[in-house]
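Homework help board

Subject: predicted structure for assignment chain

Our instructor gave us this sequence and asked us to write out the predicted structure in token form, then describe one feature. I got the tokens but I'm not sure how to describe them. Can anyone check?
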Amino acid sequence: MRLALAALALLPLPAPAQELSPVEPLPAAALALLSEAGAPEHSTGWQGDLDGDGDADLLAQGAFATGDGGNAATLKQMLLRAEGEGYSLWREIVLPEGVKSARLEAGALILTLYK
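My token output:
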């Protein structure tokens, strides 16, 4: 019993939730990656250390016009890993309703989406 309690005391405490910081406008290097398939009408992002290496990685989101006029848009999201002065594409994700906010909690990326 004492050994079990001692082992529990040695377990690391879970890291507190970290809200990712909104970023607008996106850094030029991130916008260039997001714009490879065409320029977004609007872009935004959330910055934080997503992979635990101490660098400020980025969740970037762009709204791309679709169709002929009107307000129709397609949303595209990318996870970008910070590398020196720029970014590299880590992963593309598809969230058609769009990201409202983002946070890290116990190593998981938690996204709040628009309805």
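Reply (TA_rk): Your tokens look well-formed. For the description, you could write something like this. Strands lie at 18-19, 21-23, 42-48, 57-65, 73-83, 86-93, 99-105, 108-113. That's the kind of observation they're looking for.
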